[in-house]
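User: Can you fold this complex?
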Amino acid sequence: MEAVISKFESADQRTAPQRTGVTVRAREGRLYHGLLTAAALVAPAILVLFVGVLVYGAWPSIRAFGLSFLTSSVWEPHPEREQYGALPFIVGTLISAVLALCLAAPFGIAVATFLNEVLTSRWRSAARFLIEVLATIPSVVYGLWGIFVLAPWVSNTLQPVLARSLGFLPIFGPPYEPRNMFCAVLILAIMVLPIIVSISLEAIRAVPASYREAALGLGATRWEMIRVAVWPACGSAFAGGCILALGRALGETMAVTMVIGNGRRISPSLFAASDTVASTIANQFAEAPSDLFTAALIEMALLLFLVTLAVNVLARWIIRPSLPGAGGRS
Amino acid sequence: MSPRYRRWKNRLMLGAMGLALLICLAPLASLLFTLVVKGGSTLSLRFITGPWRPVGENGGIAHAIAGSVCLLGIATALAVPVGLAKGLFLARGRSPRLGGMVRVLLDVMSGIPAIIVGVFIYTLVVRRSGFSLGTGFSMLAGGLALAMIMLPIFARTTEEAVRAISTSVDEAGLALGLPRYRVVLRIVLRSAVPAVLTGLFLALARVAGEAAPLLFTAFGSNEWPGSPLEPVGSLPALLFDYARQPFEELVRQAWGAALVLVALILAVRLATHAYSHWRYGSGANP
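Assistant: Here's the predicted assembly.
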């Protein structure tokens, strides 16, 4: 009997450390899940903090100018009659981004279609690689190339031709400045092209082969197959890719700053120096002469933030349902 | 709609799409060509390893390279722990609904323009007035800004990497009586390490060329990087500065710096690309 009891005791002693091991494990498990959840909540926290900090920084300007900040084009940093209106920058941002998109979208969709429907797989991966390189090159390097290659080419070659043939249109009329909106549009179009290509390509690849076979089986040529079977199935992905590219173009800074010429006025001509919200912030923020000036620039950043946020949410919302597997299991 | 008309239209449209591809690649060709020609003529050992000198004395860009390395180091140190935890939460977390929301927010975050990240960090960390940490222009602020850009990219690639590990691995570990967190940390994460590292390098290649968030956080400097609370130079910021200077010599140096930057970024991209091809076959698409 005693032997049995002592056996139990010793068994009890053996399990004792293990039981504390279990509680340690449970504690570690809770710690692990707590840390993971905390890290996951960093993303919403950062976004809330973003809005809060930008509103706080912009507050002096919001209070001083109210809605007239959006509609006025007076930009007067003189300390005695300080007044700021962002209209020229807002207009410049919208024009540059929308025109860049109009230029890049047809090219991007055509390239994606060509890659998937015409090229053989070896050429396709070579071309995809080159498009990826296009996406990898930093914005400042595009800007450098823009200043020394693109802008001279535009003002020496393209602009005289356009001015001679279409100069009666105000958008191609004077003033002609060496760095201008036209260069910014071209460089933005080049920079957003890879986004449009890669999202369109994903969508085109996801079109079932049976669609194509059905079209070809009815005697369609390859072009007719693309028109009838491939493109209609990709409509929403094309739209989503373009909107995503628009978001990128609205916020693109360095390359635009370097080629747009920094002219603070609204001109109908594409060859006039202009400015965007992002390029103005990049140029003037570090040298802001007064607190109100800084606040005005932060308010512009806030506007850009809210607009790109809305555009991105819209794009994700459009793309998501049409691309099965894009977001994992969600 | 005679067959001949349709055949010609087919050729015409396919040809136009091919032409579009060539037109899109023309700027790339021009850019790379100019970069190699103009940058290559500047490149020398002295240029890469020499410190800044006043105009006319043929200085180097070593201070900017060192500054970029420091900034990327700080950004990595800040973004990796959070990004790793986020990725694990998204791929193996216990709350799919919160996970879905976080995933959308990360996508939204990666769409925030880099310049605005700079303004945000300036207002919160750099400036010396108002509600702010008031560090002044500093390496720390620059690293923080880069980390904010890295975070969503790295978290998503980590999620993909962890998700790629089969759940049967988890089940095997759980069946052996291991608690869930040990299974994830010791077994799943360990098998995902190569893919996680690939993601890290991709994220680094992405932010290494960013100048916009550094303009009013790390600012710029001609000195060697010193204390983390001092301004520091970086390759992209140096490029932006030099490209707009009226001096021929600085413009030449800008091209040299651009070549170094692009070569480094492309080398990292190519290495990760080749590695994942070798490891996961040609179907992989990092």
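The first helix of chain B runs from residue 3 to 42. The mean pLDDT of chain B is 90.
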